[in-house]
Write a structure and sequence with these properties.
Layout: H1 6-10, E1 26-27, H2 39-46, H3 50-54, H4 62-72, E2 79-82, H5 85-96, E3 103-107, H6 112-119, E4 124-128, E5 146-150, H7 162-171, E6 175-179, E7 200-205, E8 218-221, H8 224-231, H9 241-252, H10 254-277, E9 289-292, H11 299-308, E10 311-312, E11 314-315, E12 325-328, H12 332-349
Parallel strand pairs: 1-10, 3-4, 3-5, 5-6, 6-7
Antiparallel strand pairs: 2-8, 7-8, 9-12, 11-12
Helix pairs in contact: 2-9, 4-9, 5-6, 10-12
Length: about 350
């Protein structure tokens, strides 16, 4: 006998990237920033008082909202604090989707979207990208209550222009959620669109660009009407006091943020060139990872050989990704060790 709803009983849950316990590894499988958080974050953490822990946190995180609003040139009322970007996705599905209100998104993309849809008993309309990951024209014809575009896309790292997404929002009858979890490594972003459209929500994360994956803090930017509606849905205290304080310190330190994201982008471009030199097909990435395919050696075999060398990348046995590896950009030293291992694996594979 099962006590769960039928859709929960049948659900295959989201599978996070493997988290190895040992420390003597090169971990390039979950898109963490290779650099530590800002020193300002660690200073605030060291000075955090017991009294602040004794009390409930600010339910809307106004300190962070003010700081983020200043950075992005919007109003605090346009900001919604979340327990990681996934919290915002959960809120959006709860707010806009049900048995009669479907979600649409291009694929392949972030594999949490279909899981959240099934939790809501929501129909999914999956529109395939073409080989160059261009935005599918059919997205405008779905009549979905919620359309999601991950931009830069995971796991391809591809980027859809702001103009294209503005045109999409203009044609949709429902809400467009632009998942910008990786946008800190791109050259443009969709923030200005929330002033021009009443149906756009932008997701941001501090896990990638700010080196705070362990904190679980993200935020939405949206027109005030959408933020007000989502505030009705969020958990009563969805972000804790420590997270609010550290996230505020992180987003204020623009110099450190710019320095580390520039370093990641430079390392990404070097890694891309090195992989292409080894005959990997690597599309241009605007994120902190690359998607690589080698037709001379199966991706699963490469993945398993890397594990034997204590190097972890991400292998997806999913449609459109069967022979591809997603590789997080590490430090220059980590990337060099990865490249050396791949050279050895490929030599053995093609003998």
């Amino acid at each position: 006998m099962s006590y769960f709803r039928d859709n929960i009983e049948a659900l295959e849950g989201y599978t996070p990237g493997f988290q190895p316990k040992q420390s003597d590894i090169i971990k390039l499988n979950t898109n963490e920033n290779p650099f530590p958080p800002s020193p300002e974050v660690m200073k605030v953490l060291g000075e955090f008082s017991a009294e602040k822990l004794r009390r409930y946190p600010d339910p809307v995180g106004d300190d962070f909202r003010r700081a983020a609003a200043k950075v992005h040139g919007v109003k605090p009322e346009n900001i919604l604090c979340c327990n990681g970007g996934d919290d915002l996705l959960t809120m959006a599905f709860r707010a806009f989707c049900d048995e009669n209100r479907p979600v649409a998104y291009p694929v392949p993309t972030y594999s949490l979207y279909p899981v959240l849809a099934k939790l809501q008993n929501c129909r999914t309309i999956e529109i395939p990208f073409d080989d160059e990951f261009n935005l599918p024209v059919k997205l405008t014809k779905t009549d979905a209550a919620l359309t999601i575009v991950c931009n830069p896309n995971a796991p391809s790292g591809s980027f859809v222009s702001v103009g294209e997404l503005a045109s999409l929002a203009d044609e949709l009858s429902g809400v467009l959620l632009i998942d910008e979890a990786y946008v800190d490594f791109a050259e443009d972003n969709c923030t200005p669109l929330i002033k021009d459209f009443d149906n756009i929500i932008i997701l941001r994360s501090l896990s990638k660009g700010y080196g705070l994956a362990g904190l679980r803090f993200g935020y939405a930017m949206a027109p005030e009407g959408l933020v007000a509606g989502l505030l009705k849905i969020k958990d009563s205290y969805n972000v804790d006091a420590v997270a609010i304080a550290l996230a505020t310190a992180a987003i204020k330190d623009r110099a450190y943020f710019n320095k580390t994201t520039d370093q990641v982008k430079q390392a990404r471009d070097v890694l891309t060139d090195r992989l292409r030199d080894m005959k990997f097909t690597v599309p241009t990435s605007y994120a902190n990872f690359v998607l690589a395919e080698n037709r001379d050696c199966p991706a699963k075999e490469i993945y398993e050989e890397l594990v034997q060398r204590n190097i972890y990348v991400r292998y997806f046995n999913l449609p459109g990704l069967e022979n591809k590896l997603r590789i997080t950009v590490g430090t220059s030293e980590q990337n060099e060790k990865l490249v050396s291992a791949l050279e050895e694996i490929l030599r053995d594979c093609i003998k």
